[in-house]
Amino acid sequence: MTLPPQPKGLVFDLEVVPAKNGKADRIIMIGGLRPDTGGELELKVGSDAADAVRQLDALSHGASFVLGHNVVEHDLPLLQTAAPDLAMLRLPVIDTLRLSPLAFPQNPYHRLVKDYKLIRDSLNSPLADCRSTLTLFLDQREAFGQLRSTHRDELLCYQSLLAPSISGGDLGAFFGSLTGATPISLPKALKLVPNLLIETDPTLDRDLKVCRPALATLLDHVEAEEHLRWSFAYALAWLRVSGGNSVLAPWVRYQFPAVVGMIQQLRDEPCGSADCQYCRTTHDPRLELKRYFGFDDFRYESPGSSLQHDVVLAGMQGENVLAVLATGGGKSLCYQLPALNRFHRNGSLTIIVSPLQSLMKDQVDGLLSRNVQCAAALNGLLTMPERADVLEKIQLGDIGILLVSPEQFRNMTFRKAIAQRQIGAWIFDEAHCLSKWGNDFRPDYLYAARFIREFSGDQPVAPIGCFTATAKPDVLGDIEAHFQEMLGLTFKSFIGTHERTNLSFEVLPCLRNEKWARINQLLSTELGEQDGGAVIFVASRRKTEELASFLISQNWSCRHFHAGLEPHEKKDIQESFISGSLRIIVATNAFGMGVDKPDIRLVVHADIPGSLENYLQEAGRAGRDQAQARCVLLYDPEDIETQFGLSERSKLSLRDIQQILRKLRVESTKRKGGELVITAGEILLDDNVDTSFDIDDQDAETKVVTAVAWLERGEYLKREVNKTQIFPARPGLSKEECDKRLKQANLSQRRRQEFEAILRFLYSAGPDQRINTDQLMALTGQTQEEVAGALKQLEELGLLVNDAQLTLYLRHGTSDSATQLLEQSLQLEKALFDVLREQAPDADSGAWQDLNLQPLTAELKERTNRPDLLPLHVQRLLRSLAQDRDGESRQRSSFELRQISRDYLKLRVQVGHDWKKLEAQGAKRRAIASKVLSFLVDKIAPGVRGKDLLVETTFSELLAVIEQDLALRHEIRLEQRRKAIEHVLLYMHLQEVLTLNHGMTVMRRAMTIDINPEKRGAYRKEDYLRLDEHYRERGIQVHVMREYAEMGLKGMATALGLVLDYFSQGKREFIMRYFAGRERTLKLMTSEASWRTIVHSLSGAQKQAVTDDDDRNCLLLAGPGSGKTRVIVHRIAYLLRVRRVPASCVVALTFNRHAANEIRKRLFALIGQEAYGLTVLTYHSMAMRLTGTRFERGAEVNEAELKSVLENAVELLEGKGHAEGDDDLREQLMRGYRYILVDEYQDIDEMQYRLVSALAGRTTDDEGKLCIMAVGDDDQNIYGWRQTSNQYIERFTQEYEASISYLIENFRSTGHIINAANRVIQANPDRLKAEHPIGIDKKRVTAPAGGNWEELDPIRRGRVLRIQLPATDRDAGNLQAQAAARELVRLTILEGLDVRGCAVLARSHRYLAPLQAWCEQNGVPYHLAANKDSALPLTRLREFVKFVRMIGAHEEALTPADLLQLVEAREFSTQWRAFFTTALEQMQVELGDSKFSAATLVDWLYEYAREIRQQTSEGLYLGTVHSAKGLEFRHVVLLDGSWKVTADQLSDERRLYYVGMTRAEHSLTICEYPGGNPFSHALADSAMVENFTGTHDPQLEVQYRQLTLRDVDIGYAGRHSESDSIHKALAELSIGREVELRPEGGRYLIVTEEGWIVGRTARSFKLDALPRKCEVMGMVVRYAADGEEHFRKGMQVEQWEVPVVRVAFVG
Known about the structure:
Strand order of the largest sheet: 10-11-9-12-13-8-14
Radius of gyration: 43 Å
Number of strands: 52
Distance between the termini: 140 Å
Structural class: alpha/beta
Strand content: 15-25%
C-alpha cells in the first residue's frame, strides 16, 4: 500500500463521558474525517449510539486504514462494544500516540501532544480533534522520513520489530512506505542494535551506551518473546538519544512497563565483567566523581576509609541511605553524584527536599558553576516565568536534580510535572527536620512520606536518602521509625564524625553592650589582612539590620540577611557574597543551612543559638576550602533567656490548634461539609479566632500550616493538595476586536496559541454558559493554576470580563449602617493621613517614625468629631492599610508597621512611596469604596433593613462601576481595575463596613481540607503530646547549648567533648553524664540560676501562688509585710520567664504610679529585658489606654475628669459605650490579654470593681478565659470615704470561683510589732483572716521577738513603746513632736544611722507641723507628703521644662538608655536627678531598647509626671497614714490626735491605725493622749509605757505654708515686655533663695534680696501673721496659651516663670 499525499484513511475521534457510579463509558459525540475525499462528520450521540456509529463506519468505506490518537487503548474497544460488526474494525490501525515516542524520541511531546492527550483547538468538537490527529500523523511521517535518511538501520529495526510483514498487521504498509523495502528478518535486525548504541560522546571512555552482556541477553529475549517487541522499540528509541535530555513518556511506562525494566537491565545493573566498558566506567564512583566534579578522589577520614565514597556507592546502587556527615564535609556531593549518575543512566529525576531557599540556590549555583546544567530549584526566589521554565524543563526531561521545599508536595502543578517523570530517588537534605527530636522539626517533612507512598501507587518506591550534618542517635532512630512505619523500608546507615579539624572553636565572655565593638575587633583581626568573608549570626531580624548598619558605619562591606527580605534581595546578597564583592553578612539562621562560600574565614555568633545542631550548621559555613577558620561564640549568660524566649514564641499552643480547628469546622459547616479551600490569612483574620499569635506575626502562616499538620495526624481532618481559586469569565469584546488586541499584545507564540484556543471556546459557548475549568484544562493541557493565570492575564488585557460571584453582608437602615460606617472610616482615613504627615513628615525618607496610639487617637477624635473613636479602630485601620498589597505579585504594601508595645508602633513608608503618593492612593481608594458601596446598597430591596443583609454581585458588575464613572475610568488603568476592586473590598471588610462571605476570588494559594465528621470534640491534650514532646526537646537543646558555652569559658577541650558525646550517646546516657541531679532543670524554659532567683527565695505559700500552672482564679488574702508585691512581681516573672507567656499578655493593675514603678523596678531587676512591653498600669491609665484618652502636656487633671475616663472605659467594656457596630468590642479590646493581676485589691471601689470584672469577663472556653490573681488585705481597707469595701473581696470569690490562699507570714516587722498589730486588729468584726492570724516568717520564728534590738537597745529591747502625753498638748501637739523626735534620735544613735528610712505618721497633717518645724530648726532632712492642694505641677517646674527641651533639641531618635546618659552628663539637684533617673528606668522597662523620636519620649515623660504628682526627697518621712500605705520604714512613730471614735467609724479607723503600725520594721513608737485613740489600749499588758513631761517649745510653733498657684498672680511677669528686667531676675532666681513678701495694695510683692520684683500674690491670699522667712520652693513655667482669650490678650510674652514661695510664720 502506497500512501498518497493525503492519506487514504479514516481519521476518527470519540467524545466520551467516563465511567461513573458503576455505569460504563458512554459515547456522546463522534467525529470522522477522510483526508483523501474531504468527507467529514460530527454527530451528537443519544442513548443509542448505533446509528451514529454506523454513519462513521459508512465514512470508512474505501479507506485503507483507520487513524486516531490513543485509539488502541481507548476508542476502538468502545466501538467494539457498541457495534462489533463494523467494517472499520477490520482495517489496519495507526495510533499516533504509539508512534510519538519513536518519531520524537528526543522529546516525546509534539506540540499537539501532552502526555497521552491531544492539545485541542476547541472543546466538544471531535472533528477538530481529527484534524489535529491528522496534523500529528503527517509530522510523524515526516520525522520517520528524516530517520530513513540519517539512521536507516534504526528505522529497519522498528519495521522488523513492529511490522514484520507488509501485508499483515496494522503498521506493515506504513513502515513499508517509509523504508521502501520489505522487513528484514528479526535476527538480522537485532544484530544492527549494538551499532545503533555505540557511544557517541568522545569524553566517555566506553564503546557502547549500555552494558554489552546485558544487551546480548536482552536481544535473545526479544527475539524469543514477541510481546516484548513494542517495549524494546521504545527502549531502543530512548537509548539512541539518551544522555540527560530526553524523557520516557509516562503512558509508555504505564502501558509498556517492560520498557523501564529493559533500560534498568541495560544501564543500571553492573554486570561485574572487566570487559564491559560501560559498567566499568558508569558504575565506578571515582570515575563519575572525576566526570562531573573534576575531583580525582573522595575525602578520606583515614587511609583506606572514605565515608563519601561508601555513601555515593550505596546511592548509585539504589540503596536507601541514612548518612551523617559534618557540615563542610562534602555531604551535598554524596547525593548529587548518584543523582547525576542516575539521570544520565536512565533519565530519572532525583528530588531533593530541602528546608531553605538559600540552601537550594547555593546547590544549584554550585552545580551550574561545574557546568552541570540539569539542576534546578522550585522555591520563592523564582519569578513566575522562571518557575514556568523549570516546570517545563522537568516535563521535557531536561532536569535531573530538582530541589524543592516540602511544601511543594501539596502543589498541584508540581505534582503534575513530576508525574511525567520516572523518579530515581527521594533525598531529604537536613533530614533532622523529620524528627520531633530534631532542632528544626517541620511537619511538612512528615507529609512527604505520605505523598511518596501515594505517588508511587502499586509501583516500588524509589530509593530514599536522608542526609544531615547534625543528628544525634534519638533523631536518627526517629527518622528510621518514621520511614519504616510510612513506607516499610530500612536504611543502610553511614554515621560520620562531626569534627572539622580546620575550624577553631572559641567561647568568649562578652556583655550585650560590648558585642558590637568586639565583633568589629574580630573582623579587623581576621579580615583586615587577608581575603575571605565573614558571617555574623544574630537572633532577630531587627538585630541583623542594626548590626549591619553599625558595621557599615565602620567602613565594612556588609549587608543584612533574613527571611523577611524580598526574593530578589536575597538572591543579590547571596550572589554578591559568594562572588566576594560583599565581604560580611549579618544574618539570622535563615542563612545558616546552605550557603557554600569556600573562603569564609570567620563565623561569629553574637547571640547564642538554640541548639548545638544549629550552632554546628551555622559555624560549619566557615573554612569550606579546608583552610583554617575561626568560629567564635560571644556569650552573655542573659542571652540564653533570649533563646528560651524565641523558642517559646515559635511554639504552637494546644489552644491555638483548638481555635484553628474550630474555625475550620465552622467554615466546613457553611459549605455543608463540602471541600474546604482556605488560606492561613482567612483563618487569622476572623476576630473569633483567638490565637497566641496575630496575622502580622512573621511566622503566622507557618504556625497555621503546622496546626493543620497536627490536626491531620490526629485524624481530625485530611489536607489535600493546595488549590488556587479561580474565577468564571466571559468575553468582553467582539471577536474581531479581541483578535486585534491579541495580536498587539507582547506574547510568546505558545502563549498566544493558548489564548486563542481559550477564546475560540468562549466565543462558541452559549451566552449563559459558564466556564468549566476542567474543560479548559483539557483544552490547553494546562494545570488548574496555569488556566487561572491565563484567565487572569486575559482579563488584564481587557479580553475577558470576570463574572465571579460575590456574596457579602451589609448593615442597612440601622444606626450603624454600612454607609455610615464607610463614611466614618473614610473620614478617619483622611484625617489619619493628615495627622501622620504632620507627626511623621520624614517617614517617607525610609526612616522609622513613632506612633503613640493614645495621643494619635485623641487627635483623630478631635479632627473627626468622633468621641467614640478608640485606639482599637485606629490600629485596625493602620493594619488594614499596611496589608493593602498586590496579592498576585507579592509586592510590599505602601508602608510598614512594627508593634513595639500595646501603645507604641513604628511606621515606615516603603521605598518608592511618599506621603503625596499615599494620599493620592487613599483618595482613589475612598472614591472607589464610596461608589462600590453605593452600588451594593442599591441592590437591597426597598424597605428592608437589618444588620446582616445578604447581597450578591459579580466582579463584572463591580468593574462596571469603575467603567461608568468618568473620573475613575480615566484615573484607573484597565489592567489595574480588578486589583483595585479586590483591594477596596478587602479594605471595607477589614474596617467592618461589610463582611465578605464566599467568592472573594483574589488569586491566592490555599489549603484544601476535608474535615473528618467522625472525629468530634476539641483537639485533645493526648493528641498534642507528641508536638509538646518536640517543644520540650527544644528546651533541652537550649540547656545543652548553655552547658557548652559555660564549659567553653573554662576550656574548649571539655566543651568539644560535650559536643562529641551529644551526637554519639543516647539521650539518657548524655543527660546522666552532664545533668546528673539537675534533670528537673531540663524541663524548665529558663536557666537554673533564673529559676532559683524567681522561685527558691519564696515561702511555701508564696511559691504555691507564683508557680500555679493550672491558671486558676486566685484571691490572695495577704497580711502586712507578707510580700504581696513580691508575689505579684515573681508571678509575672514566672509567667514571662518560666512559662514564657508574652509580656503583652499580662496586665497588672495598681492604685498609683509609685506602686507601678515598684513592680516594674523589681521585675526588671529580676528578669531584665524580658520585662519590656509589660502592661503595669493604674486603673485610670488602663481606662485611658482603652478609650484613647489623652490629656495635654502639663494639663492639670482633676479627679472628676479621671473618674469620667474610668466610667467611659467601664461602659465600653460592658457594651454600653458609644462605639457603634462593634458587637464584640470587648473581645477585641482585650484580645491577647491572658493574665490580670490586681494589687491592693481591698482598696477598689464600685467603678474599679466593674472595670476588673469587665476586663476579665470574657466568656470563651476554659482554655481561653483570662486568669485573675487578686492580692489584698481586708484589714488594710482604709479608703471607705471613697466607697471602697471588703464586699468586693467576697464577690470576687463567688463570681470568679476563685480559690483563696493566705499569705500570713510577715517578713517585715519584728515579733513584738506583729503581735501588737494583731492585738489591735482582732477587735474588728467580720474579718476574713480571723482564723489566720499574721505570724512572723518561718526563718525568724526562733529569733527574739524584738529582733536585733533586744541587744541593741537595753531600754526597750525591741518592744513597742507607748508614750503617754498630757492632755494639755492635745491641740498643739508640741510635746508630742518633742517626744517623737527624741525617741527617733535615740534610736538612730544606737544604730549609727540617720533618720532616712524613718517615719512619723499622723491621722491628719496638723500634727505633723511641729515635726516639720523641728526638722527645719535642727537641719534634719525630711520629706513632707504633701496634700493634693499644695503639690506643684511637676511638668511646669523649671527643671522639668528644661530637661524636656533638651531632649526635644535632638533630631535623631533616642533610646531610654540614651536619655539616662544625658541625665548622668548634666547637672541636676539631687532631687531632680533621682526623679529623672527613676522615670527613665521606668521608661526603659516600658519601651525597651527601641529608638524613639524626641517628641515621643517627651510625651511619655509628661504622662509619667502627671501620674507621679509629687517628687520624693530623702530624709525623715512626715505624712498621714493614708500617704504611707504600701511603704515601710525602719522606725515608725504613730502620732495621736484627730482619730475618730464614733461607733460607725471605729472599724475603719482601727484598720487605718493598723496600717500605721504595720509600716514599722524594727521599732514602733505610739503616742497617746488621755482619751485619744481608742486602739493602743489593747496593748496595755504587752507594750512598754513611758510618760513624757517636757516643756512647751515655742520654736515648734513655727508653721510653714507653701503657696499654691491659686495664691499667686500667675500672669504677673507675663504682662511685662520681653525686655523688662523681671525676666532676667526670674532667670537668676534659684530654689531656696530667700525673698521678701512686701505688702502693697492689698497684695504682697515678691521681692528678691537685690530689690527686684519677681512676682506678686493673688488678691485672695492672706497671711494671719507676719512671716519670719520666705523662700523660693519652685519656679513654675507658664504660657500665654494656657489662658482664655481675654487672658492671652494681656500677655506681652509667650512664656514666663512664676516663683512659688514658702512662708514661715508663727501661728
